[in-house]
Amino acid sequence: MNVPERDVMGKGIVDIQHHYATCNISYNEYNRSNIPAICRNFSHEYINDNDVDAEAMERMVSIIVPIFFGIIIILGFFGNALVVVVVAFNQQMRSTTNLLIINLAIADLLFIVCCVPFTATDYVTTCWPFGDVWCKMVQYLIVVTAYASVYTLVLMSLDRFLAVVHPIASMSVRTERNALKAILITWIVIVLTAVPVFNMHGEVSYTYASELHTACVFLDLDPVNRPDGYNKTIFQVFFFLTSYLVPLLLICGLYLLMLMRLWRGVAPGGHVSAESRRGKRRVTRMVVVVVAIFAFCWCPIQVILLLKSLGMYEISGLNIIMQIVSQVLAYMNSCVNPILYAFLSEHFRKSFRKVIRCGMPDPNTARHLNGRPDIEKSALTKTTRTGSNDIL
Where does the sequence pass through the membrane (predicted)? Predict the structure, then answer.
């Protein structure tokens, strides 16, 4: 029996049982040259571990991991919802950067509501109870929200590049209307191009411990059992490049160009006030921190899944635990951004306190940062609010 591998994001109890059941059969019934691809990086020693140890690990994982996911769901839902409320209901905080921050929060909310609870269920139960259609939908939404998050960070970095390197020339480009257009186009492209992911996953049945189970998995290509399946290696390499490596290289390139221009002196476009430069530095620092945290949280799981697809990641007890920890770390990224805003921004903390007190943010709050009234807005401020009206 050749059972396909788990979804792009990680490994639950069901997946552990998949590997155990499939590869145990493989080692017993196949000769080594005919072992299914799923088992070629599977530790034979792990298969032969006694059932008591395997069951103990499964029980521990089924308790601890859902607790972490529960914390992520609570913090992520309320934190990102708070970001949306603070910015959306405060007219004075409408800027290109803050619109992108709202978009990032919406992507995180969608991920937390539609994906994390079902992944947590996969660690608790020994079957997939939600059916084939929702299996496909969850995996589709995982990919869509991952792309939406990282390419929102690309747009935020581009926004910072234009604001710092071309502060005057970019005024006509960095408008709220153009930001909304960029966000809409990004979502449309991602939603349409990710449609194949819906077809690449599905609910399958398998036998483990003499019992029939179901699981939501990647429908891997198998010449015998699934000749119409999909190549997991090609999919995972493509996902790694387009959802992690290439976007981060674009971001690093933009910041490298920004630093090169700053090292040469004042950016072209004329004199820039000291207050405006301080505002740009605050917002740029915030974007850098958000990008760095994203890269740190997603790096382990992206690398592990890539190595697995290439047959270079041995499936042993220790490596399974490492993959689970990496998955939890990646999911944590969806709840840390509101915490970063709260730590880095006095302005956000003030608006946060007003919402906690059951009142909408006071528009006058946006006129004060660090106890100083903002300079009265000019006619151009609406298109280039990058200083005191941003979250940072």
Answer: 63-88, 100-120, 140-158, 179-198, 234-257, 286-308, 320-344
Residue 145 in any domain: the answer is yes
Cβ atoms of 68 and 119 closer than 8 Å: no
For residue 222, list its beta bridge partners: 226
Q: Token pair of 344, please?
A: 């880095």
Residue 381 lies in a domain: no
Domain region containing 291:
51-264+277-353
Whole-prediction pTM: 0.79
pLDDT tens, position by position, 227-261: 888 999 999 999 999 999 999 999 999 988 888 87
DSSP state of 6: B
Q: What is the DSSP string of 209-271?
A: TTEEEEEEEE-B-BTTTBTT-B-HHHHHHHHHIIIIIHHHHHHHHHHHHHHHHHHTSSPSSS-
Domain with residue 195: its CATH number is 1.20.1070.10
Question: What is the number of structural domains in the chain?
Answer: 1
User: Has residue 76 been placed in a domain?
Assistant: yes
Closest CA to 139 of 268, 270, 4, 24: 4
Tens-digit pLDDT profile for residues 278-301? 666 777 777 888 899 999 999 999
State the pLDDT at residue 360: 52
> What gap in Å lies between CA 159 and CA 166, rounded to an integer?
10
Three-state DSSP class for 173? Answer: coil
**What Rg value do the Cα atoms of the chain yield, rounded?**
24
Which sign, positive or negative, has the C-alpha torsion 350, 366, 288, 296? positive
Q: Is the residue at 31 inside a domain?
A: no
Q: Which two structure tokens, joined as six digits, stand for 140?
A: 């589709």
CA dist., res. 180 & res. 191, Å (int)? 16
Which segment of 185-189, 242-246, 267-271, 337-341 scores lowest on mean pLDDT?
A: 267-271
8 A C-beta contact, residue 25 and residue 34: no
